[in-house]
Amino acid sequence: MAGSAGTTTGRPGACGWVVAPEPFATADATALRRAYYAEVAGRYWERSVTEAEIDQGMLDDPADELAPPTGQFVVGRLDGRPLACGGIRLLDPATAELTRIYVDGSARGTGGGAALLAALEEEARALGAGRMRLDTRTDLVEARALYARHGYREIPAYNSGPYAQHWFEKPLV
């Protein structure tokens, strides 16, 4: 099924992105999750993050909810290079939550974020979800703009996560 960015899950799209499910612990998925953590933690702390801090963050980042039947993790490749990742987990049978959305800085502006969203929305529907939610921080302005461009609307808080400052939702049906 074609995504809104000209991408398809598991097949190349017009913009060169291929987004497909991948186990959370593969070498490519792990490298992308480390890059994600380094960026979001570094922006939050307003400094470079050490390898030890990334290691600790990875220990606190369990994968058990990001695999069927409770979720899914995907890796996005542009021209064969792993440059994006993201996941979903079911909050309840009708609600999926986006998490760990990341596009490498060298690939931003190429449709990777849209490709991730399209693939993860498709995966959420396959798990039976009728809506997608997410939380994010105020300083992640690019992420908030991406979500708004793709039909996500701000909603009242649905969780009390320590880094949650904005909450979004999109119907999937």
Structure explained in plain terms:
Helices cover 30% and strands 29% of the residues. Strands 1-2-3-4-5-6-8-7 form an eight-stranded mixed sheet, sandwiched between helices. The chain is globular.
Q: Layout of helices and strands, plus pairs?
A:
Elements: E1 8-9, E2 17-21, H1 27-45, H2 51-59, E3 71-78, E4 81-92, E5 95-103, H3 112-126, E6 131-136, H4 141-149, E7 153-155, E8 166-171
Parallel strand pairs: 1-2, 5-6
Antiparallel strand pairs: 2-3, 3-4, 4-5, 6-8, 7-8
Order of helices and strands: EEHHEEEHEHEE
Please state the CA-atom Rg, rounded to the nearest Å. Answer: 15 Å
Strand element count: 8
- Structural class by helix and strand composition: alpha+beta
* N-to-C span: 15 Å
Strand content: 25-35%
What is the general shape?
globular
Can you count the helices?
A: 4
The average pLDDT value, as a whole number, equals 90
Helix content: 25-40%
Side by side, the strands of the main sheet go: 1-2-3-4-5-6-8-7
Give unreliable regions as ranges.
1-8
List keywords for this structure.
disordered N terminus, alpha+beta, eight-stranded mixed beta sheet, 4 helices, 173 residues
Quick summary of this structure?
With 173 residues, this protein is α+β, with helices and mostly antiparallel strands.
